[in-house]
Every structure is written in structure tokens, then in C-alpha cells.
Amino acid sequence: MLDVRRLNMLRTVAARGSITAAAHSLDLTAGAVSQQLAALRNDVGVDLLRPDGRTVTLTEAGRVLVEHADRILAAVREAESAVAAVKGTVGTATTLAALPSTVSRIVAPALTALGAHHPLLTVTCLVTDQAQLRELALGTVDVVLGQRYHHLPEATPQGVEISPLLDDPLLVVTAADRIGERPLALRELATHSLAVPPSGTDCGQAVLQACRQAGFEPAARYVTADISAQLALARAGLATALVPRTAVDPDAPGIRTASIEDRPIVRRLFAATRRTESADPTTAAVVAALRTAARGVRDGSALTDGHERRGAATGANANPGSGRMPGEPGGDAGRGVPEGVRTP
Q: Are 159 and 275 in contact (CB under 8 A)?
């Protein structure tokens, strides 16, 4: 009988393009993966991979076996979910992939709540902006906090369940003395030097298309996907940035924000899980925590546009986004990372 773990290794090598990359994602050595793939080749009696420069590609037999492996592994996950649903209890381990810009105001509060309600659950959090839904399909992660911009089609990958969380508009961010307290028309930025993401990114494409629809070509003086760099350039008065609302610290000093009134640029945050017939209590708990944190941003914790950010708040608003109320102890819990929650 074919070994499910070996089938997963073959599938991962096919997706990653090399044994080394597959081994890294599986947290194994390349030698261990090669050994298991050699055993799988002996099991089926035919070559499954062929060298292709520095990568490997599937043979015809390998392609056929991977197609079956997809269905076999999906059935295994379905069986695991069905048993978990019968048990009806949250498990002890899961993995979440999240965008860096969502950590402070959504992920940290969600993980803090999970730590309080499910203290035996350990969440490994992978903070990345790279190919998250692919990791979900490969089984590397269990839940993805991802994004789509309004200009992109709403196509959902096969086998993935999408749960909308929050519409997160981009704000105009400048030095505190550069703009007033009113919403701006996007065309008013035609004369600004902008700090924008690369045009090859979803956000960069959204900004570029919106500016062109407003009748101008954006003056991209600084090009970076690093939101902290965009904010630093805006604070220094060197550029105007367009940054998602949830990525702006409400107490960052020396900046002013304004909404875009005529052509808003919106990213839609969502939670994604693998689609199964039976709901898995563990992933359901993670999604519910993310949804609650997103609702807090939308209903009570959203920034007030058009006001200068003067520094740290005091009293009941101290330590926003830290996951700690005034008077609570510090440590990991105070930074919004509860005991039992770890990041790689």
C-alpha cells in the first residue's frame, strides 16, 4: 500500500520545484525527502521525477500519481475533520498564515482571545505576504488571513472556503503639517511625490489603476512594499503614502491621515480554510477569533481620519493593539501574544 506521507512529499516537490525547497517547507532534510521519494519510486516501480537543470519535474507517471495524491490527501483531511467534528472539541495545535500589516490590530487580539478561551491550543503564526493560499492548498497552514483588492476578480481556488472579515480602505498618509482634516479627492495627489508598493503587487496595481482612472499617472518617487518604510517617508515629509487603515498605528506621532472620498481604494481581508464536509472545531475557533477582532476594528477601533497622531494614548486607551488593559502585567501576553501561542 502506498504511504500517504510519501505521496505528500511527492506532491510538495511538484509544487515547490525542487527537493530542497520541499524539504524546507516540510521541515525535513533534503536527504530524508530524497530517501522517501526513492522508496516511493520502488513502491510503484517507475520513475516519478526527472532532473531539469536545478529543479525537478514530474514524469508522466509522477503526474498521474500526484493527481491521485491530491484526492487521497483531501480524503484524509476530510476524515480528520469528520472525527474532530464528532469530538466537538478544539485541538491542541494549528497554523495561521497572516499578512504583516494585519498583525497588530487583528492577529494579536485574535490570538490573545484564543489563548484565553482555548489555553491548550498552540497557534503557530507564519507572518508572510507570499502565496498564502498555495500554502493552504499544500497543507502547510490551516488558516490564512489574506487580502484581495477591489480591482481583482473574486475567484476562489478549488477546495478553499473564504470568510470575509473586513473592508480595509487605504488612507492618505502625510507628515502632520502637510494636509488638512478633510477627505481628499484622489486626483489631488497628482502633484504629490508618492511612496507606493511595486506595480507588480496587488496593492501597487490597485493604486496605479485608481490613479489612472482619476486622470493622472502617479509620481512614484519611492517604491517599496514595506509599509513601515512608506510611513517613515511620509513622516519625514518626503512622500505621501497610501496605506491600509489597519496598518496605521493610531498613536504614531507626526503623521496625518485622510480618507479618499471619490475613488476609494479598498482591500478586502478574509479568512481562508480548506473546504471540508464537516467543520473542524479548531480552524472554526481561529476564524471566529479573527472575525471578532476584525469586527472590533470596524465597529470600535477604526482610526479617526484627518487627525494628527500625537503620540501614545493615556488612561483607558493605553497600549492600543497590545492586547493588554491598563494594570495588566507585561511579558508576552502584554504584547498580544498569549502563552501557548508561538511564532516561527
A: yes
Could you give the CA distance from residue 261 to residue 184 in angstroms, rounded to a whole number?
Answer: 6
Cα(344)–Cα(342) distance, integer angstroms: 7
Give the tens place of pLDDT for each residue, 269-295. 999 999 887 788 999 999 999 999 999
Alpha carbon distance 31, 45 (integer Å): 21
For residue 222, the cross-strand partners are: 195
DSSP code per residue over 294-339: HHHIIIII---TT-EE-S---GGG-STTTT--TT---HHHHTT--T
Give strand pairing partners of 296.
none
Q: Which of 176, 145, 339 is nearest to 256 (CA)?
A: 176
What is the SS3 assignment for 186? Answer: helix
Kindly report the pTM of this predicted structure: 0.74
Distance from C-alpha of 54 to C-alpha of 38, rounded to nearest angstrom: 18
Give strand ranges (E) for the chain. Answer: 49-52, 55-58, 93-98, 122-127, 143-149, 160-175, 193-196, 219-223, 240-244, 255-258, 266-274, 308-309, 341-342
Partners of 127 in the beta sheet? 98
Secondary structure class of 5 (helix, strand, coil): helix
- CA neighbor of 6 nearest in space, from 94, 56, 14: 14
Cβ proximity of 225 and 99 under 8 Å: no
- The per-residue pLDDT for 251 is 75
pLDDT tens, 36-67?
A: 999 999 999 999 999 888 889 999 999 999 99
- Residue 261 has, within 13 A of its CA and on its CB side, a CA count of 9
Question: Quick one: cell of 294?
Answer: 476584525
- CA distances (Å), 257 to each of 234, 318, 332, in order? 10, 21, 30
* Whole-number pLDDT of residue 300: 54
